[in-house]
Amino acid sequence: MYLDPQHLFDLHHTLAGEYLASFTYPWQALEGIAACIRRLGASLPEGEYDEIQPEVWVHRTARVAPTAFFGAPCIIGPETEVRHCAFIRGSALVGAGCVVGNSVELKNVILFDGVQTPHYNYVGDSILGYRAHMGAGSITSNVKSDKTPVVVHAPEGPLPTGRKKFGAILGDGVEVGCNSVLNPGTVIGPHSSVYPVCCVRGVIPPESIVKTGGVVVPRR
User: Fold this and answer.
1) What is the DSSP letter of 27?
2) Environment class of residue 66 by beta-carbon count within 10 Å: exposed (0-12), middle (13-18) or buried (19+)?
């Protein structure tokens, strides 16, 4: 099944590859992201990363706007751009060559290398795979309206996560259209696309297209 980390992601494109590989399902990694970042941060090359405040490590090639906010723990990778008024609340592992854009909010996330969240995105309690892209205004909704634990509705049946906060898992190369909402527990397989202004829930197979109204078709 494609819900395990090895099928969703190329684990070479994140500092958390070994950590993620230890889980059956990627959402199991959400609980320990902060601890993982602290372990990784302690071993980062001092000549490449600056600890700009306690437990906030920023690569010297990253481009960071002076108005960006960083909560601990956090790692910002090489050649990543953090733009005006980005709000990184903490427990954020951001890879190499990423874009964290204007007024984007990150919280308890892993962003693989090459991820783009460029414009007014909220990404919380989520994992975004290599070169995933979220269009302007698209968000992960990470709490159900009734506040009950999130269940992943997989083809083989419901998979309880035990978590009240769980946004979305995006496999490598996923494209999310502008102003789309990814509901709690959404898992999108690698190289799938979501049309703009969609409301997405459940598990989307790899190489799929999510169209308006929740229609899912194979990519041709």
Assistant:
1) G
2) exposed
Q: Which of 7, 13, 84, 119 is catalytic?
A: 119
For the question of whether the overall pTM of this predicted structure is more than 0.70, the answer is yes
Residue of 125, 109, 130 lying closest to 11 (CA atoms): 130
Which CATH number characterizes residue 192's domain? 2.160.10.10
CA 66 to chain CA centroid, Å, is 23
Residue with tokens 């050649």: 79
Preceding peptide of 73 cis, ω within 30°: yes
Tell me if residue 119 is catalytic. yes
Q: Report the domain count for the chain.
A: 1
Using a 10 angstrom Cβ sphere, with 0-12 exposed, 13-18 middle and 19 or more buried, the burial of residue 4 is: middle
The answer to whether residue 19 scores a pLDDT higher than 90 is: yes
